[in-house]
Design a protein that fits this description.
homodimer, alpha+beta, Aminopeptidase, nine-stranded mixed beta sheet, four-stranded antiparallel beta sheet
């Protein structure tokens, strides 16, 4: 009988083939035409997890099914909830894929397919590591609860309902999620901070129909000019948010964090080349990494009004609008900010304009305490799996479910990302490095061992 | 044989039927599918004008044909160029028309059809008045040159070529155009000032593709935020233009003009109700009429960038843009303004953004001297035709061809509008008041007589 390491080596090809099987299922949760495919992916996982000997359930909770599977309790060892998702984003624009999104293809050591990194490939590392323990040791060193949903890309409604209805089912000591990225190739990372978000849509209505901009311009308030004024007022020229009180509750970056970030081998020139710009800008006094990870921001996500076609049309638009969102750092209060924003914009709204501000969605940021034994265990496991100590990073994106785990289950989440920044998550030619797939499985297998040392 | 007035009374029904004939032809110049219809309208006019005994030509000059017709020279009397156009705007949105746009229908004394007021109906008043003279007196008291184009709604390229190539053909002492409006129902007007225009498109490019606004927000310059900042910088909160030097060449409104405007029975409440707003705003220190007619303005005509669909999408746009235009008053220099604008926007362009500013088109404003004998003659003719002295007004719109007549032919243009502000020019349910159609013919017939008194 092989030991754990030998087993992982022997199974490499088999693990990859299983990943490709799952990637071939176009489980696009937002597209009702793929409802059957979503269900097929769920079924694949149920079969897979129950074949490992885990007690497995397909939970129907109103939307796409949630898969729940658990191993036996382990006395004196923690219970670990492993969260992931089997649904994927739509593959559009299709014509930009070099190979079809649901025909996994290996090039240069990467597998290219929709869902490769987000999240089928990353999620599967934990399933495979559990398999390795069960096949070699006959049991897991901790109790695992797998929670794999099919609505991550469309808002996780079913999962939030489950968290409200049956939090006891999901009771655990810590949550593990692999749905983020390493710091860079060969440099694994633990993400200990996520930004929150507050997303708004602003709609301005002026005259009841488009007017001739010559006959009426200057006399009638133009909603598009007004929109530009309001949006511009949200930030100063360096992107610092101008909403009164916005920074009141921001926890400043600690000196330790700043020096940790500064020590990271962040290549700003390569970063600029990757995104195709010849310069970056942002809040004064903070490095690019600090701004991305740990400073609140305001970005217009969309803006519109009037004539957008070819050539010139001399109209004064009847309406204009914008979508914009703030990325918040932990401790900022989404409600306070929404109120202050509303007050500020109302004050800027001139005669002749009707303003509607829609509070689309929001969630606060989270920070995982770096001094927890779980973080130490994860760090140890990653070092063993990747052959390199992880760095501690934060992330500008928001993962609302992590906030929910914290609020509903009272536990921290370990964000152990095996992906890379340029994996084209949500874009064409999504990929996942196969070496990282195997390193992730290894790190995950060691993680169960390291966590078992903590005690319940 | 009837005299002029009797003839005009007798022919009312016939004149209306002829107008309806012309309105039935969908001569939409911008739509190549209607090329045959445009030509049919031109043919109708050629037949019509030559049947009156005028020397008539169909000038092919590269685009839609121009119709030129002239009467015999009159010794000791001025030559008058009558400009108009037989092409019309597209009728969209079709579903908002109460009756089909090319089936002229009379309701409440108005004829509803595309082109009713802009410009078939107004243009035809001068053809019918010439007919009345020719049928009753056998000759015209002045020499008339009709210049009726088919590209007014698409930029008048053929006509500009004709003005460059054959200005001597169009030599005249004064131009008459009826393509504007009265001050209000029952209150005729002479428009003595037109605004100029300078129209720009601003395109901003940021990252090479849309980015995740969480992962990259705050670190990468957002082109939509930048766009809002640039557009907002063009004006202050009251719409006063902030481009350096913009007001340097503005001729201030004279005290006489201001008191004339103030005396006009302008009903601001009715104006606001007409356009559907509960307030107006604009440059401080000027009345609504002054702002519309005689103060330069800046209006966004269109703005776009990022995600405009339903719901929220957390993207940092790759690009954003806007179309905006300045309405200029006479003596403002379009070139100087374009340069100052470019300099100002370049100064506002932050790292990471590539800016393109496209100078779409421009033309300076014009003022017709109020103390000219032509204006006095027009005033007299209008009073006789409408039974009421005209008021002197300016117009916020631009009629670039009027500037070209001034520059190429060295003559002033009399803008004698028979339309009304609410005629829905370019919109659904365009109309023209039939009583004004007949009053316009009458005023036009008297105009030739009044102008003949001036001498050559």
């Amino acid at each position: 009988m092989p030991n754990l390491d030998q087993y992982l080596d022997q199974q490499r090809e088999q693990f990859e083939n299983e990943l490709y099987e799952l990637l071939r299922i176009p489980s696009i949760s937002t597209d009702s035409q793929h409802g059957e495919d979503v269900r097929r992916a769920a079924g694949w996982l149920v079969d897979h997890l129950s074949n490992l000997g885990l007690t497995t359930e397909l939970i129907e909770n109103g939307g796409h099914p949630i898969i729940y599977a658990e191993s036996a309790p382990v006395a004196g060892a923690p219970t670990v909830l492993v969260y992931g998702h089997y649904d994927v984003q739509p593959p559009d624009p299709l014509d930009q894929w070099l190979t079809p999104p649901f025909e996994p293809t290996v090039r240069d050591g990467n597998v290219y397919a929709r869902g490769a990194t987000d999240d089928k490939g990353q999620m599967l590392t934990h399933v495979k590591s559990a398999q390795a323990w069960l096949q070699t040791e006959g049991k897991l060193p901790v109790r695992l609860k797998f929670l794999i949903e099919g609505e991550e890309e469309v808002g996780s409604d079913s999962l939030y309902r489950l968290l409200d209805q049956s939090p006891e089912k999901l009771e655990c000591d810590v949550v593990v999620v692999s749905d983020t990225s390493q710091f860079g190739p060969g440099q694994p990372a633990i993400t200990y901070g996520l930004k929150g978000i507050a997303y708004f849509e602003l709609r301005l209505k002026g005259p009841k129909q488009e007017l001739h901009s010559g006959t009426f311009g200057g006399a009638v308030t133009n909603p598009a000019n007004t929109l530009a004024r309001m949006i511009a007022a949200l930030t100063d020229e360096n992107g610092r948010v101008q909403i009164p009180g916005f920074y009141d509750d921001v926890i400043p970056l600690s000196d330790q964090e700043r020096s940790q970030f500064a020590e990271l081998a962040f290549d700003e020139a390569a970063f600029m080349q990757q995104i195709g710009v010849d310069g970056v800008s942002g809040e004064q006094g903070y490095s690019t990494l600090e701004r991305r990870w740990a400073r609140p921001t305001c970005d217009v996500n969309g803006i519109w009004g009037g004539y957008q076609g070819e050539g010139g049309k001399t109209v004064l638009p009847a309406e204009a609008g914008a979508k914009f969102s703030f990325r918040l750092v932990p401790n900022q209060d989404t409600k306070k900010i929404a109120e202050s924003l509303r007050q500020m914009l109302t004050g800027l709204c001139p005669p002749g304009i009707k303003m509607e501000l829609i509070d689309m969605h929001s969630c606060p940021g989270v920070l995982v305490p770096l001094d927890s034994p779980y973080v130490a265990a994860a760090s140890q496991a990653i070092e063993r799996g990747f052959g390199r100590q992880p760095v501690f990073i934060r992330e500008g994106g928001s993962i609302p479910i992590v906030t929910a785990f914290s609020e509903k289950l009272g536990v921290d989440t370990l964000l152990l990302g095996w992906g890379l920044d340029d994996d084209n998550t949500h874009g064409p030619n999504e990929k996942f490095c196969l070496a990282d797939f195997h390193r992730g499985i290894k790190a995950s297998a060691y993680l169960w061992e390291e966590l078992s040392k903590i005690g319940q």
